[in-house]
Prior knowledge:
Two copies of one chain form a homodimer.
Chain A: H1 8-15, H2 19-26, H3 34-46, H4 53-60, E1 65-70, H5 77-89, E2 95-100, H6 105-116, E3 122-126, H7 132-140, E4 145-150, E5 158-162, H8 164-177, E6 183-188, H9 194-209, E7 214-220, H10 226-239, E8 245-248, H11 251-264, E9 273-275, H12 281-285, E10 292-294, H13 297-313, E11 322-324, E12 328-330
Helix pairs in contact in A: 1-2, 1-3, 2-3, 5-13, 6-7, 8-9, 10-11
Chain B binds a DNA duplex (16 and 16 nucleotides) through residues 7-9, 17-21, 23-24, 27, 31-33, 36, 51-61.
Amino acid sequence: MGIRRATLEEVANEAGVSKMTASRALRGASDVSKDTRDRVLEAATRLSYVGNRLALSLSSQRTNLVAVVVPSMSNVVFPEVLAGISAGLDGSGMQAVFGICDYDVVKEREIIRDMLSWQPCAIIVTGLDQPEETLKLLRNADIPVIQLMDLDGTPIDFNVGLSHGEAGAEMAKALVAGGRRRFGYIGSALERDLRAGKRKAGFERILREHGLHFVDQQLDDAFSSIALGKRLTVAMLAEIPDLDCIYYSNDDMASGGLFACMELGVRVPEKILIAGFNGLDLVNSLPSRIATSQSPRRAMGEVAARLVREAVAGKEIASEKTIIFKPLITGADP
Amino acid sequence: MGIRRATLEEVANEAGVSKMTASRALRGASDVSKDTRDRVLEAATRLSYVGNRLALSLSSQRTNLVAVVVPSMSNVVFPEVLAGISAGLDGSGMQAVFGICDYDVVKEREIIRDMLSWQPCAIIVTGLDQPEETLKLLRNADIPVIQLMDLDGTPIDFNVGLSHGEAGAEMAKALVAGGRRRFGYIGSALERDLRAGKRKAGFERILREHGLHFVDQQLDDAFSSIALGKRLTVAMLAEIPDLDCIYYSNDDMASGGLFACMELGVRVPEKILIAGFNGLDLVNSLPSRIATSQSPRRAMGEVAARLVREAVAGKEIASEKTIIFKPLITGADP
DNA sequence: ATGAAAGCGCTAACAT
DNA sequence: ATGTTAGCGCTTTCAT
């Protein structure tokens, strides 16, 4: 513990200069004599001075905070996005502040409201399906707003992501082209994970175009996990064993599906092809091939960070306002 | 976008009261007449007023920020801890601010310094092996410091975690008791992931006590991943096929090891027992049993959050200053 | 190259 | 129940 933190004024007194000179010296301003600068720096070290950003930002009317709101930390996808944002902000002097809203739009709004009160210089949110009240909050904030991970909707400002509807559709096309005909769908928390719902809708659209449909569906309210994917797959195959393909809401669920098939002795992908979404590291090491759409999560975070840097620097038109990523499908061949 | 954000003063003018009354009304103070409160609230809504926490905190000399520094987001362990912290802080009015230091002590120090400048009311850091300069920074901060996830060392203030040395030792005991004798070790980034190193050291100590040692080791500088665990396992089994147990730096690596064994046709756990650390969700769904130590990551985060709340509330001695978690070993039976 | 004054938006403390 | 004054720690602006 210890005593109260030293202030700039105390450092200035210690160094025998005015607050202003101390401030300049600390910030490495050019017009401070070397001698003075040294004395101030030394005084600051002696007093273990740590500047007060609250005062700095209030006074200068600028902050280095970038607010970021994600739905969850339980799905590796979001930590990876955050890592990308954090890395992309490195060296910019900006600092990401993360909030987790648990896929809850009300909580999201409150978190956004709270974060805005810190006067961030930009805000990054997940998706573009916020309710009107939240959108109003964001528009009113008068800072660059980046909507991340999804393209299917109308962005406020900047938009970085991929079309989940298209991702689902492309996967369906690949699977149908590969000869699959009897499809099952396994997903979870679709009311909350809107992007998973969009993928499913895109997938179904293509099925319809081919006169096909999901022969069976297993849905659950819980959030996605490997264990849940496994459980629902066991249930589905008990009902309808003669499927030749199951589409999952994501790779976690799909991996669980693969493990279920392995236990049941169902050959993957020969008998049943398993398809997910995300392109997780896990998928590439699995003992059997499963199909997935690679979503460049870290890259999206990095690009969002780059947009923030440019927007804050005032290069209003430096980049496109919408950055489109294309999901790359792997493992879907017959 | 829009115009400059409204200030409290503008809200007050709009409502025809003084700043102070507006402030009280907005904060729901008791001694404001219902009529006045309504007028102020309405004015605030009309102006889309969002309070300025910089000013609030500077003026009141308190903040609701809890600084959190973790080494990485690539390992699911840390996001889970963060989720626990975030959930544990819910409803307290406190807000977690996360920083990622990439297992880099210099970066960690800079992040801590930067975070302290925001005058957080508490700080949570990972482990207790910070270099002296970082420790000094933390001690000087004059706020509760929580060191998380590790117990092997001397805490500054509060300490929540488990002993990784002991976790490694207990795992070794269980495996030796189960009859395993020819051990291999596979790990990565041990110079940076000090807790993995402590587990290995604890494991080796027990081996020595039984006159045993690691017959082979595969180490790599890269960070842990399923793919890396798989690759190193293939390499190890090519060199020394007659091992009966491999201890991995964590469950990701161990899972990769299992997938390698499956591809090589090595029976797990009959021929080779695979042991990791963390107790990931993944492990429970895997097609073969692997041993692991359950580390209650989310719970650690929640407990850390509880300590923060208590400490900030001034209940100095409400809890033990050190909260010890015991890793539960599963899947290690013969 | 250095300093003094004013003020960022809010709350604490003290009126009334 | 409401208002006034002072000030949080810093930067901005303007002097010197």
